[in-house]
Amino acid sequence: MDAAIAPVIDMKLPWVAVVGNHDQEDKVYMNYYPRQNEPAPGMAFFHIPLPEFSSFTSNNFTGVKQEEISSPSINSGFFYTMLEAGDVKAAFVGHDHINDFCGKLNGIHLCYAGGSGYHAYGKAGWS
């Protein structure tokens, strides 16, 4: 098992001790934990896109928009809440299976995760 995760151990990542089998937990892979001087950036993952996803045009996003945004008709204010929190850098959604794009709005990346697998609808010829 050590050989399998040796490259990760060499990177001295603090979470490496929990990689692999739990029967290895007593083995110490690191003898220090680097100090974190600032909070980690926040990311949000949810299924239904926020109404703000509709604000993107072909000029201000990267990727492909192949169907309409299916967001709620009532804006809950969740995007504003993420802005107020100040640490959220990105939000990822699904729901519209053949959309696969990211745009940045007020400093927050809003991204579709794209479709994967064969168990949901798709678009003929799209790979």
Automatic annotation (TrEMBL):
GO terms for cellular component: cytoplasm. This is Putative inactive purple acid phosphatase 29. One of its GO terms (molecular function) is hydrolase activity, acting on ester bonds.
